[in-house]
Amino acid sequence: MAKKGELLYAWTTDAALGKKAECGGAVSQLLKYALESKMVDAVLAVKKGVDIYDAVPTLISDPKDIDQTAGSLHCGTVLLSKLLTSYAPTMADKKVGVVVKGCDMMGFLELAKRKAVNLDNFLMIGVNCGGTVSPVKGRKMIAEKFGVDPNAVHKEEIDKGQFIIEYEGGEKGISMDELEDAGYGRRSNCRRCKVKIPRQADLACGNWGVIGDKAGKATFVEVCSDKGADLLSKAVAAKKVAVEPANPKGIEIRAKTENAMFKLGDKWRKRDFTDLSPNLWLTIENETARCTKCYACIDKCPVCFPVADRLKKGSLMVRPGTLPVDQMFHLRRLAHIGDSCINCGQCEECCPMEIPLALFSHAIRTEGDAFFEPKLGKAPYSN
Ligand code: FAD
Ligand code: SF4
Ligand code: SF4
Ligand code: SF4
C-alpha cells in the first residue's frame, strides 16, 4: 500500500507504452488505469499534434487513446485548467483525471477559490516542470542557435541544464544559460517560476532524483494525497505499475536540484523586477499603448474567466473598439488580477502585440504576496 508522503520510483509494466513515454510511463499508465477502473470518467492530457511544437490538449474517455499522450513536450505552453472550464457545464458531476504542471495546478486552485471547478472531482497527476519554451521562439532558437532546420527535429528534451534536440542526422545540446543569456530558452514567466514540484496535486512525478539502473526508465513519484496513494496502490495491485523505494542518494539529488531551481527563479525575479520597479507604471503605460484590445489576455487568463463575455458585449466601462486603448482597460485588468496572477504566462504568450503582460502582473502579485493572503497558488480557503 502506497502512503501519503512516500517517495518511490515507478514505471509501467507495459513495455510498448514504456518505450513511447518520457521516463518509464508511470504517468500514462496511472491515467489509463484510472479510466479502466472507472476511478475517472475522462482524462485531460496533452498529445503531440503535427510536430514537436504543436501540443494539443485532449479529453480522453477510451483508455486505449492514452498512449497518444505519452512523452513530454517542452514547447507545450498550454494551460489545461482554464480550458477545462469550457467543458464544465457538461462535466459538472464527472470525475476527471488531469496532468498538471505547476501552473496548471495553481490555475485549478484559483478556479476552485472562485467556485468555477470542484477539486473533489479531480484526480491531479502532477509533473515537475523546469520550464517550457514558446513554440515560435523554439523554432527560431533551433534555426539560429543550433543551426538546424526546426522541421527536421523529431525529439527535444531538457536535461542537466541543456536543451537537447534530436534531428535527422544528429543530436545537439546547448546550455540553457547560454540560450537564455542570448534571449532564447524558456519563457520569461517560466524562468521566474518557483512551483517546480507540484505537491498540491495528488501525485508529483518527475525525473529529478532517478539514478542508477532506473535513470531514464522510471519516474520519481511523491505521493501527495490519500487519493494519489489509492490510485497508485490499486494500479500496483493490478500489476499495471511497478514501484520500488526511491534511492536515498536520489532523494538528496532531487532536493538539491529543486533548491537550485528556486535560486535560479530568484535570480530571474531579481533581474526582471529590479529593472521594472522604479518605473513600473510608466513602463506599463508605454508598453500597453500598442494594445489592440483583442481581449486574448482576458480570454486565456485562468483568474479572469467570468468577465470576458461581458467585456465583449461592452457592458463595462472599458468599451471594446476604441483605439488607441484607454489606459483604464489595463488598470482595471491589473486591479482584477493583481492579487491572484499565477504567472502562467498565457496572457503574454497570446498577446499579438508582444506586450510583456505576465511580467507586470507577476511583479505586482509578488510584491502583494509579501503582505497579503491568500498566497500565490495555495489551496482554497473553506469560506
Ligand atoms: P509519460 O507517461 O510520458 O506521460 C507524460 C505526460 O505529460 C502525459 O500525460 C502528457 O499529457 C503530459 N504532457 C506532455 N507535455 C506536456 C505539456 N507541455 N504540458 C502538460 N502536460 C504535458 N521532471 C523533472 O523532474 N524535472 C523537470 O525539469 C521537468 N520538466 C518538465 C517539463 C515539461 C514541460 C513536462 C511536460 C514535464 C517535465 N518533467 C520534469 C516531467 C518528466 O518529463 C516526465 O513527464 C515525468 O517524469 C513522467 O514521466 P512518465 O514517463 O511517467 O510520463
Ligand atoms: Fe512550468 Fe512554471 Fe512555466 Fe508552468 S510557469 S510551464 S509550471 S515553469
Ligand atoms: Fe491588448 Fe495584448 Fe491583451 Fe490583446 S492580448 S487585449 S493586444 S494586451
Ligand atoms: Fe496567467 Fe497572465 Fe492571468 Fe497572470 S495575468 S494568471 S500570467 S494569464
Question: Radius of gyration in whole Å, from Cα?
Answer: 21 Å
Quaternary structure classification: single chain
Strand order of the largest sheet: 3-2-4-5-9-10-1-11
Proportion in β-strands: 15-25%
Helical content band: 25-40%
Low-confidence stretches: none
Intertermini distance: 34 Å
Number of strands: 11
Helix count equals 16
Shape call: globular
Structural class, judged by helices and strands?
Answer: alpha/beta
Order of helices and strands: EHHEEHHEHEHEEEHHEEHEHHHHHHH
Largest sheet, in brief, is: 8 strands, mixed
Instruction: Give the averaged pLDDT, no decimals.
Output: 91
Bound molecules: flavin-adenine dinucleotide, iron/sulfur cluster
SSE blueprint:
Layout lengths: L6 E6 L2 H6 L5 H11 L5 E7 L6 E6 L19 H6 L2 H4 L4 E5 L1 H12 L8 E6 L7 H10 L8 E7 L2 E6 L2 E6 H6 L6 H5 L10 E4 L12 E5 L2 H12 L3 E5 L2 H29 L3 H9 L7 H5 L7 H6 L13 H11 L8 H5 L6 H13 L14
Parallel strand pairs: 2-4, 4-5, 5-9
Antiparallel strand pairs: 1-10, 1-11, 2-3, 6-7, 7-8, 9-10
The structure holds flavin-adenine dinucleotide and iron/sulfur cluster (3 copies).
